[in-house]
Amino acid sequence: MSKHPNAQAHQVAGGAHHRPLNREDYKTLSLSALGGTLEFYDFVVFVFFANVIGALFFPADMPEWMRQLQTLGIFAAGYLARPLGGIIIAHYGDKIGRKKMFTLSIFLMAVPTLVIGLLPTYASIGIAAPLLLLLMRVLQGAAIGGEMPGAWVFVAEHSPAKNYGLAIGTLTSGITGGIFLGSIFGVWLNSTYTQAEIHDWAWRMPFIVGGVLGLVSVYLRKFLHETPLFQDMQKRKAADVEMPIKTILREHKQACWLVALMTWVLSTAVVVVVLMTPSYLQKVFHIAPAAAMMANAVATVTLTIGCVFWGWLNDKIGTKWTMVLGWGGMTASAYFFYLNLPGEDTLVLRYALVGFFVGSISLLPIVGVRAFPVAVRFTGLSFAYNMAYAVFGGLTPMLVSVWQQVDVMAPAHYVAAMGVLGASIGFFWPMASRGWQPKVRK
């Protein structure tokens, strides 16, 4: 048996352990990461212009709180649609091929994004405006539900075994880069145009640009090839006639729980540290909005770098100790960051540090892809990840907000607790390191 810390990667990777990354691998990885960046940008850019959208797509005489609530409700609809879209796309990904569904997911994201940028407002078509906006948001949610698990599986099954973690970490960094791209576009738009111009027409630009670039990415993905593991499975006619979701629920419950718990860690890290903290810094510690957003932008960059680093380290020392170091470090750096607030002199440095350790979220797909066999891999990862994200991603903001009323350090405690959970999973749960193992017949 190989002594390499990730010798089990041959079960998920598309190349022999000793094979180096080649030109085709770099093309697959770059096109996949680019598509992931654009698709996640399309999904999150909505939140950066939620106030403008609320003013344009709901009646002018509607109370501000109700307008904001309904706008955020439309935003949340995208999250609620993730599990259904993910399961459907993954089902066909396990049946007819990874590549076809990988391309379909970005098409389903690009078209609604472009449509949002072209939609008439409430002043033009009345109640049809928010209803069409809701429909487009649901389609976006369905698309993102299939894109992320599909991208992880696609890249994993193409990569050489010795670079398995690096490939998935690099892809994940591209996906998180979509958040940074959205925030940068928002900053540029607000610094270039007046609020009146943004309200009148400029708000459409990020959606139209995102939609057009998404369609370009659809075209580029036609140059990708089906994964060798799926092709091998088809040649051996190994695809089960049973619906993959039935197989998952009957035979792979442990893997589902493993991915679900790791998704809890991931969703907490992203939602609390990246999405909620800028507002938290301003409201609780009265840090200037510009300073808070600048620190957040730097943390997003180090998060993106961290995704690559922790994937690379996984290939070097194995999953067990990478999880202990990555998520254990997230616990320590979370307390170092939050307990020293406001500390504006070192705010950017401390935020950057915790962002780097949050990059260990790339360990979720590294563990999750290999937790399921090839025949049901796409469905298993998509089902467990999207169902867990719908629950934990939705409950986390409310839980932290309520907890914060009695303890201002609630974000620190919650993120730190999730870091302990992630490190413990890596240290004590063998499947996290070994992945799915076929049963040996006696």
Rounded to an integer, what's the Rg over CA atoms? Answer: 21 Å
Helix content: over 70%
Mean pLDDT: 85
Strand content: under 5%
Can you write the helix and strand succession as a string?
A: HHHHHHHHHHHHHHHHHHHH
Structural class label: mainly alpha
What is the tally of helical segments? 20
Question: Span between N and C termini?
Answer: 20 Å
Principal-axis shape equals: globular
Largest sheet: none
Strand elements, count: 0
- In the predicted model, the low-confidence regions spanning at least 5 consecutive residues are none
Write a concise keyword list for the protein shown above:
20 helices, single chain, mainly alpha, about 450 residues
Explain the overall architecture.
- The protein starts with 22 loop residues before the first helix and ends in an 8-residue tail after the last helix.
- Helix content is 78%, strand content 0%.
- The chain has helices at residues 23-48, 50-57, 64-80, 82-95, 98-118, 122-125, 128-158, 164-192, 195-202, 204-220, 228-235, 244-251, 253-285, 289-317, 319-338, 347-358, 363-370, 377-404, 410-428, 430-434.
- With 442 residues, the chain is mainly α.
